[in-house]
């Protein structure tokens, strides 16, 4: 079972009037269905497969970016090189997903969000590619040199 108590505690701090609310009442009182639908693209991202690599569609929004990936993919000679290339194209910095002027979280909350994405992406990848094995890494600010990150790649 996944322990989400740190997220619940942080939400209770962010919404002090919700201290004694159940999760359902917290969502009812503060949530918007349109926002839940909007953020579903983060938790269940569109994926595409290019030359055997599974990639986040939002990191390859056009033919030029897809061609850039293919050009780099053709230069790959080893499995570790392929894994690194996939991780690079499947890398997301949590802090930069959102407009900095409206940022309402810090590194701790970003790490919590990254862990939730890890859980969601594990399921999405398992459902869409059941015969394949993926590694999902949550990266600290120290590891990225900037903000909390998340990446994935296939382990063959």
What does this entry look like structurally?
By secondary structure, the chain is an alpha+beta fold. It is 53% helix and 14% strand. It has a three-stranded antiparallel sheet with strand order 3-5-4. β1 and β2 (53-56) form a beta hairpin. The radius of gyration is 18 Å and the shape is elongated. The model has no long low-confidence stretch (mean pLDDT 91).
Task: Characterize this entry briefly.
The protein is built from eight helices and five strands; from the N terminus they run αααββααβααβαβ.
Number of domains: 2
Largest sheet: 3 strands, antiparallel
Question: What is the structural class?
Answer: alpha+beta
Question: What's the mean pLDDT score?
Answer: 91
Adjacency order of strands in the biggest sheet: 3-5-4
Helix share bin: 40-55%
Strand fraction: 5-15%
Query: First CA to last CA: what distance?
Result: 27 Å
Low-confidence stretches: none
Morphology: elongated
Number of helices: 8
Q: Tell me the series of helices and strands, N- to C-terminal.
A: HHHEEHHEHHEHE
Strand tally is 5
C-alpha Rg (nearest Å)? 18 Å
Summarize this structure as a short list of keywords or feature phrases.
three-stranded antiparallel β-sheet; 2 domains; 53% helix; alpha+beta; two-stranded antiparallel sheet; 5 strands; elongated; 156 residues; 8 helices
